[in-house]
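Re: that chain you flagged

S.,

Sorry for the slow reply, it's been a week of failed gels. I finally had a moment to sit down with the sequence you sent. For the record, here it is as I used it:
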Amino acid sequence: MKRVWLVVALCGTARADKPTDFVDVAPLIPDAVLDLRYATEHNFTKQQLYPVAHCKLRRAVAAKLVKAAKTLRAADRRLVLWDCYRPSSIQATLWKLVPDERYVANPKKGSRHSRGAAVDVGLVDKAGHAVVLPTEFDDFTEAAHRDHALAGDRGVEARRLEAAMQGAGFAGMATEWWHFDDADASSYPLADDPL
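Prediction finished late last night. Pasting the structure tokens below so you have them in one place:
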């Protein structure tokens, strides 16, 4: 009987958390503001694309976001989460609406969002009040390009966000100041798991 118990106990602990597992970010960064736009009609498509408002990322990517959130918290700022993991089937829908690779990844190549290795984020202050950001989320104009958005007085908060995200292991996208890819994004497989 003891031998059977030992086998059961070992099997129960044999499964270790993997860096590639999907995890829910909300409990990891409890002060983050969840404003997942594609789970609402408040986005450029004017339609709800996600059935639920869950921010999921690969475990290793989420750990980097936790690090960025800690850095921002020390500066009296909190993250706003606009988009995280995006199933490949929804990426195909976005591509049909905006077939422009400057702003939407071609689903044939795959999106880093669909790998669970990209986030779209903004900032609020410690109390959750808006701070001055360069543009709205999903602004498809040159004003949202990093070289414009991070410049001048209007770019102060975007530069703060950029520094924290880069320090945690993310790289920005040239055309969207709010978009950050994990430096190891290409190592994760594309997924179409439900949210």
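What I noticed first: The radius of gyration is 18 Å.

Talk soon,
D.
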